[in-house]
Amino acid sequence: xxxxxxxxxxxxxxxxxxxxxxxxxxxxxxxxxxxxxxxxxxxxxxxxxxxxxxxxxxxxxxxxxxxxxxxxxxxxxxxxxxxxxxxxxxxxxxxxxxxxxxxxxxxxxxxxxxxxxxxxxxxxxxxxxxxxxx
Length: 134
Known about the structure:
Strand order of the largest sheet: 4-1-6-5
Structural class: alpha+beta
Protein name: NUDIX hydrolase
Number of domains: 1
GO molecular function, one term: hydrolase activity
Number of strands: 7
Shape: globular
Number of helices: 3
Distance between the termini: 39 Å
Cofactor: Mg(2+)
EC number: 3.6.-.-
Domain Nudix hydrolase: 2-130
Strand content: 35-45%
């Protein structure tokens, strides 16, 4: 089984809403998830997540502690995702969809529960205690 190293960013705004993006590409095109993607050669997880959030949402963030890890099965390969808790450099910045995102937004819990999310997203966030706080 081939594993591909990936990262995801768990970022809440001052109101407790969660940053999510709508995936523009497979796997799970059209589904909503936290921003993230592949770790490039020579990058550590923190560097990769900062780059991915900037590319997908235009937001500058600081990477923090590991929130958790998930395996995302696909036809091939399997994505091994390390999700990190991030904080915004500019708390008032507004996300704008970038390269791999069709849309980007901060959402509250009720909205998140209505969105078509990537498999296991809500379960993982709940297990880590990181669902939107409003």
